[in-house]
Design a protein that fits this description.
Oligomer: single chain
Largest sheet: none
Distance between the termini: 50 Å
Number of strands: 0
Number of helices: 4
Radius of gyration: 14 Å
Order of helices and strands: HHHH
Structural class: mainly alpha
């Protein structure tokens, strides 16, 4: 399988795992809402690295897929949602 196909397949497979782990992290630890996307990316990278026994994909593709799946699990809405304060005072 070539690069884009491997990446898309891995993102599709690990996204539900990251969604679950992100929800567990939000319930277990008090996390500010503005850092939830960063936490999801971090969890995604860890899950991507931990997927080594289940795939023959290169480690860089697994890390990239984990980061993409982390962002996917949070969603673009959460990332672009307005936060406290203003960007320009």
């Amino acid at each position: 399988m070539e690069f884009p196909g491997e990446l898309l397949l891995l993102v599709t497979l690990i996204s539900p795992v990251i969604i679950g782990l992100n929800e567990v992290a939000k319930q277990a630890v008090r996390i500010p809402k503005r850092v939830i996307p960063v936490v999801a990316i971090f969890i995604g990278v860890l899950v991507g690295i931990a997927s080594a026994p289940f795939t023959t994909v290169d480690v860089f593709i697994r890390i990239w897929a984990g980061a993409i799946a982390g962002l996917t699990s949070v969603g673009l809405y959460e990332s672009g949602k307005s936060r406290d304060g203003y960007t320009k005072e």
